[in-house]
Amino acid sequence: MLFDTHLHLIYRDRLTYPWLSGVEALNRDSRFDDYTRNAGRLGIEGCLHMEVDVAEQLIEDETRMIEELMAEPESLMRGVISSCRPENTDFPAFLERAASNPSVKGLRRVLHVVPDETSTTATFRDNIKSMAGTGLTFDLCVFPRQHGLAVELVDHCPDVRFVLDHCGVPDVAAQSFDPWRAGIKALAERPNVAAKISGVIAYGDPETWSLDDIRPYVDETVEAFGTDRIVWGSDSPVCNLGGGLAIWVAATHNLTAGWSDDERDALYRLNACRLWQL
Predict the structure, then answer these.
(1) Who is most buried in 7, 30, 123, 254, counting CB within 10 A?
(2) How many domains does the chain have?
């Protein structure tokens, strides 16, 4: 069974997503009942919701919406990775509310959609550093050219647990490995960073990608971090850009076919349960 650490839900009737108008392929609802039906067919036993960069004033409304879904009978939803704005001076108050909410398991600020300088300010770095001891993780979503900035942030916050999204966002379509490879190795040297095996099918050529295209990126990520510091995520519905949830689940089973039972269990669910105390 798989535990999905990276599910996006889109409810345009309840929340506002400013970025969606620029991504026509994803500018549609992605609802929990549809996901739940597919998850039951694919062997997904539970999930965490990953923030979808809603309008800033609606960040905590998104969390409340997911909590409603958590409360549904036999819900697969186990928690929330909330959006946040560590660049803002009001972050400490937001963090206090998030840390006191048992539904919130972590925070994320996507860094490849903001200027690189955003994560280098003292305000941003010290705010992330203040997450130490809260039990919350911080997801790193960065392009390979930004891996160095991610390393700097991690080094500033040695007592915060980080999760690198999407194998570090490699350029699968171009089959480019540098500077991605160097960044993965550098981040893996930091013991407080885990890696998420997710997202990669959306980075290949949507018409022609194959397992041979994505396997090197997954294998190198796993080799760098080890099977005790990796978790699995669907990146649904973004994975639809590369074929969809069922395709990614099938690819995952193929990519791990030669692993031991313990190694598969670690990636599929056990590491996530330990990391987020699920």
Answers:
(1) 7
(2) 1
Q: Which domain holds residue 226?
A: 2-275
pLDDT in tens, the chain (278 residues): 999 999 999 999 999 999 999 999 999 999 999 999 999 999 999 999 999 999 999 999 999 999 999 999 999 999 999 999 999 999 999 999 999 999 999 999 999 999 999 999 999 999 999 999 999 999 999 999 999 999 999 999 999 999 999 999 999 999 999 999 999 999 999 999 999 999 999 999 999 999 999 999 999 999 999 999 999 999 999 999 999 999 999 999 999 999 999 999 999 999 999 999 99
CA–chain centroid gap for 136, Å, is: 14
Q: HSE on the CB side for 119, CA within 13 Å?
A: 27
* pTM for the full predicted model: 0.97
**Token pair belonging to 268:** 């599929």
The CATH number of the domain holding residue 52 is 3.20.20.140
Cα separations (Å) of 91 from 105, 124, 150? Answer: 16, 9, 19
Structure tokens at 72: 């549904």
CA 92 to each of CA 96, 121, 124: distance values in angstroms, whole numbers, following the listed order: 6, 16, 11
89 burial class (0-12, 13-18, 19+ CB within 10 angstroms)? exposed
